[in-house]
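Journal club prep, notes for RB
We'll compare a predicted complex against what the paper describes. Inputs for the iron/sulfur cluster case:
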Amino acid sequence: MHPAYSVIVFTTASGAGYGLTIWLAIAALTGTLPQTSAVVWLGFAVALALIVGGLLSSTAHLGRPERAWRAVSQWQTSWLSREGVAALVTFAPIGVLGLSLLALPTGHAMQSVAAVLTIIAALVTVYCTGMIYASLRTIPAWNQELVTPGYVLIALATGGVLYVLVTAFVAQAPLAIGWITCALLAGVGVLKWFYWTAIDSPSPAWTAEAATGLGTIGKVRQLDPPHTQANFVMREMGYSVARKHVARLRPMVLLTLCAAPMFFLALILTVAGPTAPLWAVLATTSAGLGVFVERWLFFAEAKHVVTLFYGAEAV
Amino acid sequence: MGQEEPQIDFSVPSADEIKTSTCYMCACRCGIKVHLKDGRVRYIEGNRDHPVNKGVLCGKGSAGIMQHYAPSRLNAPMKRVGPRGSGEFVEISWDEALSLAADWLGDVRAKDPRKLALFTGRDQSQALTGWFAQQFGTPNFAAHGGFCSVNMAAAGLYTFGGSFWEFGEPDWEHTKYFLLFGVAEDHASNPIKMALGHLKERGVKIVAVNPVRTGYQAIADEWIGITPGTDGLFVGALIHELLRTENIDLDYLVQFTNAPWLTIDDPGAADHGLFVRDDDGAPLCFDKKSGQLAKASMTDINPALVGRYQLSDGRAAVPSFVHLAGRYLGADYSPERAADVTGVPAETIRRIAAELADTAFSQQITLDIPWTDWAGRQHAKTVGRPVSMHAMRGISAHSNGFQTCRLLHILQILLGTIDCPGGFRYKPPYPKPTPPPLKPFGKPGTIQPGTPMSGPPLGFPMGPEDLLVDADGKPQRIDKAYSWDAPLSAHGLMHMVITNAAKGDPYPVDVLFMYMANMGWNSSMNTPGTLRHLTATDPETGAYRIPKIIYSDAYFSEMVPYADLILPDTTYLERWDCISLLDRPISDPDGAADAIRQPVVEPDRDVRPFQTALLDLGARLSLPGFVTEDGTAKFPGGYPDYIVNHERAPNVGPLAGYRGQDGSAFGKGAPNPDQLNAYIANGCFYRHELAPDQRYYKHVNAGYLNWAKDTGFNGSADPIVFQLYLEPLQKFRLAAAGYGDVLPPESHRQRLLQFFDPVPFWYPPFGDDGAIGDTFPLHAITQRPMAMYHSWGSQNAWLRQIHGDNRLYINRRTAATYDIRDDDWVWLSSDIGRVKCQVRLMDGVNPHTVWTWNAIGKRRGAWGLSDDAPEAKRGFLLNHLISELLPARDGGYRFSNSDPVTGQAAWYDLRVAIEKADAGEAEETRPRFDPLHRPDPKDLPEAAE
Amino acid sequence: MTSLPQTTNAKLGLVIDLDTCVGCQACATSCKEWNTAGYSAPLSDEDPYGSDPHGTWLNRVHSYEVDNGSAGQTVHFPRSCLHCEEPDCVTVCPTGASYKRAEDGIVLVNPETCIGCKLCSWACPYGAREYDYSDGVMKKCTLCVDRIYNESFEPEDRLPACVRACPTGARHFGDLGDPESDVSKLVSDRGGFDLLPEFGYKPVNKYLPPRPRRDNEPPVPGLLQSPIDAVDSSVLDTPRDPLERFFAWADQMLSR
Ligand SMILES: Nc1nc2c(c(=O)[nH]1)N[C@H]1C(S)=C(S)[C@@H](COP(=O)(O)OP(=O)(O)OC[C@H]3O[C@@H](n4cnc5c(=O)[nH]c(N)nc54)[C@H](O)[C@@H]3O)O[C@H]1N2
Ligand SMILES: Nc1nc2c(c(=O)[nH]1)N[C@H]1C(S)=C(S)[C@@H](COP(=O)(O)OP(=O)(O)OC[C@H]3O[C@@H](n4cnc5c(=O)[nH]c(N)nc54)[C@H](O)[C@@H]3O)O[C@H]1N2
Ligand code: SF4
Ligand code: SF4
Ligand code: SF4
Ligand code: SF4
Ligand code: SF4
Ligand SMILES: [Mo]
């Protein structure tokens, strides 16, 4: 699949944004949110910026952005529509939570209600994002059990890194959430490792023989494509990334998305001190890079069944 | 849930107006219905009522809109101002253009009309262009037939009065076995496809003989991946098998062919090998009933096919069939020998021969159609041997094509399958006598300044006496047609005109006038050489060797920048045309038909139909027939005026339908002023259906022959006798042996003796000759892509998406021996040059053969495409590798790269060597020529949205 | 809207005969020609006269070589929307622009409401949906809805453009839901098959398989032998030289 930057930005940014709101909500719920409005301001600003930015980026990816509003109508069947609905709905508890944290005394019931709803809505939204991909049978690399958990886990992990970043500037490092984030980052690494193993499985789901139905005669080879220049289908779905790039990029994901942020986080949580913001920025930068590469690979490595008609032997 | 399905207006009319016409996206001449909306062409579909395509439309025809709205279209007449090839032109008015042309031509005509060479390419108005040449007085006229398929036309017309090329087709409805030789697409694009569909429906076995397995061969039940140039031997071996197993129709041979005609067997005599004739010139046979010689045309005799008989002068004679049987039963034509050369296993040859015999003789079909033959004998039924064949350029584009095609006809005739149910059928006005009784005009001394020729330039020589050569044997035509180089060159040799004219061999010309032929690129052999010839100058004067070039094209092709005066044509949707029975009509075996094109939209720029411009030019030159008594234009209304009012012979004109004052006559009748309207009302064609008893055995069918005579198709109703043994060839051989009045120069004698065998035979194509064959191990051929017509599809925004560049296809196993992989770039070299191209591996190609799609490669800057268009970057031509001349023989003379009998260009004789390009080399084709410069891009009309 | 209809009144679709298709592209260009001014007009072309010409086509013709164990086979393979009965291309659509008609099962994109998110093209395993870069919406085979019901047409022209054009007759149009229809019978007679049936989209369009080649048939009995070879030449006084034998036969045949 063609790794379109708009979609990569959308999924990674909004995922991290929702992750961050979830941690803000959890902190509010558990009373661990630093008692300063700066955290609320900063936290919610970053989260909303990422969410809104992501959504805008995904809108820019549309052929007819001015009609984007139509996308929420088909929640009954369409994960994309559900995601749109969920994204819109999520703005409400997030807004209420943010405002109530600023305006109401700590521990107000409204905050708890809003926090629970935010957590649920954000999780549902990220889950929907994951399901957009995971539900596509045409792309065996996505039609995997690990894909949606991966989206959720990465959202929580990158959100956690952001939470540490936000708090690092204004308050004490959040021990519990910090360590949980470390664990989640490790979890991401493990999950990705299993995911890659799964998609590398040598038994392909579909073959050119099956696609063309000519397998009853024998082995099928493309003689000529229909047109000499690539068409939309091949531009969109025929992207293929060289093995040697994959071999280089996967460890890079593990390093930048998991290992390095974990290390910086651990540093913040253990030795802490005035350098914490610096480590937090490094952790965020690394994770940002990592999640971008992770998502790029997620697209670039995914083979679409349609390529079987265009010369691929198996998918 | 929620939403309703959107309301769609299903019944939006597709047009404000629908006009019928004839497609010209290729030469197939399908009927079209053009849907016009808001003054623009919205949709083109096939006309269901049309006899050619019955409603279907091919990939090209369906892209006609984009041709019409192509940015490559020319806008106005142009005069060259920079050097040739520079593309520096100024636009001029039509009046200026035509008076300039008239000046140039008037000058030539007053001095020496031969110095006009008029050659037309994809010309569907040869009845007019040929007549123009004749009235002008130049013998130097031909259309593209000489480089196209004259081998098919000549072999067929000389042998059975029809041909695979255009003049006949298999009886698709009844045939039970179909053999296809060397056809990728052919002129009958849609009819062949429709027919293959029907054969498939009926489960008829299709056998495709072709080095490449694509297109038609892909759906064949059996593919025979023959080595190029060896079909003659394959067919000879089939004949061998049929003779060996005694599976031929002897009665058919006796009744319909010259097999029983006696040939004089007197080696060393001046008439050795000629037919024994009576005092009236009628051929004789030996009648077993009376034990005497008898006129072969008599009906109450029992002619011998074998034996040796004594003539009254004591000499011996044998039935011509003896020569045939002797040749093909010999070991030279055994399946084993054929297998070695052709690559087709001997068992396969035997099996196919048996299948042919089985179908022809055990599955004979009988139609309940009574008919009467020329001798008045009634036949209660029409009997057929349902084996049919078709062949085209895979056979003809080789230097052995004429004899190979004759071999194919012999096979058809031995099986008794000509114009019978299930066999190969003539399309009226064919059959014609073998050959048609027309001699080429232009003998020395007959060409006079300011005078028309007394007959048309093209015809069918019957012997050396009909050649256009002077006493020294020197050619009289610029293309050396009808000379000892190519005696039966019934369509001329267009591929030699530019080379010969530039060299002044046999003489220089003053004006080269061409129409609709992209000679500056894909239509020439040795394109780089041709471009040099087009720009060659006299070292002393600096003047161009070809002083003046007039060209009519509709688009900015590679040829345009090399002309001095451009006459821009309309598109096919903007003009009248006439697809005439005098030329290449649209008949089918059951009916004679012709057609017109009508302008469906008005030209939106300063262009004129070429034919109208030519008529204007003829009038300006006061050519007889083009002006009235008082010197004014005879056809002031242009081409439509001519189509209706011109009479070639009294009451015979370009269109056969709706003649006579009331429009009720077919064939012969006075001009009908309302004729074009009548055609339009009928869908732009007219078809006269033959009565059932006229449809089969037309060569001997009294009903047909009488009708053909009355309609003016044939001069007499005499039966047409198949010429298995071709006496005219023997006459050329005798001349080569020194007999007769017209003798060839020494340099040509060996060649005539060798190749002018009256009994068809197989010889290796010249490309395989010793040294060439060894240095260049692979055959290289092209195929027509179904979705492209030669060069002119690349300007079409849709078609060029399908074929934007071309690959060199090579057999996977062969490639492995050169360590060549898919997508590699390779150098292909021949004796005259190198071309770089990208390969694609495939299994379905003969292992000794590489091939590519024809005419996809383009020159930068041409056709309204950007300089970095894939056609110019990766697309390539094999033409750069094909020499128009054969290597020098003893004495240094270089024959053209053509069939020695007909002069047909031997495109597919090409031999090449292949070599991997270096890893560091640019992934671009070579050679690349300088980009062509388009004169006035600012005026480009807008492309279709 | 993106909910699939429970059932459709008819299952209109195409049957494509791979045994007959010669790969001529008529169905592809006639489709382009009709539809570029039809229901989903335009079908845009990008860089039409430049270095990278490509555009929106609703029908494309592939070609394959298949190893059949002997000489091999070349198969031309037209591919357009199969108007699946249960396709995800409809259900994934967030706007409802992609829908399947309850009336006849035709799968369409509403060009007025499509947002060009391309998700439906991802969900189609058959590559049948092509995004129009200039128009910003998804395009696909409409089964020529604006022809097959077009009352301004002669009844015999109420056919998809590609079927109307196809010179070999390799394309058939009809109701595959009606077991008595010509197309259904053709499918059952010729063993028509679904593309990727395991996928579960239940394509309506069917493909007819290429028939086995006939390059290996047993020779016609009796016809391979020379009749004279068949008799014992020591008994019959037949000449042994093939030419003489042949002449003897010819002479004898004609004297009958
Ligand atoms: N679409 C389309 N249609 C066309 C044209 C076009 O450009 N495009 N051009 C028109 C013109 S001008 C012409 S002349 C006709 C020509 O129509 P075709 O005769 O179909 O012309 P080619 O494409 O040259 O096909 C020649 C075939 O012969 C095969 N071949 C080559 N050498 C040999 C050989 O030695 N033996 C055998 N058995 N086969 C061989 C090639 O593989 C190829 O398949 O088509 C006309 N129709
Ligand atoms: N290597 C190789 N070369 C070949 C062949 C091959 O098989 N292999 N085939 C040969 C054969 S058989 C042939 S027939 C030739 C074909 O070659 P050509 O006869 O040259 O055919 P085209 O390339 O189609 O070029 C015809 C010219 O007509 C112009 N034209 C198109 N429409 C119109 C119109 O309406 N009016 C006017 N005035 N001009 C128009 C086009 O722009 C183009 O410049 O190619 C030959 N060349
Ligand atoms: S075969 Fe195609 S291009 Fe040629 S005349 Fe017919 S429809 Fe036109
Ligand atoms: S072929 Fe593709 S686009 Fe058409 S209905 Fe099936 S899944 Fe949808
Ligand atoms: S591209 Fe259009 S039709 Fe396809 S899923 Fe998106 S909105 Fe629906
Ligand atoms: S049915 Fe119509 S839209 Fe579909 S492929 Fe055929 S011509 Fe194109
Ligand atoms: S039009 Fe018919 S023969 Fe031509 S490619 Fe399409 S299906 Fe095949
Ligand atoms: Mo040709």
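Talking point for the session: The CA atoms of residues 581 and 594 of chain B lie 6 Å apart.
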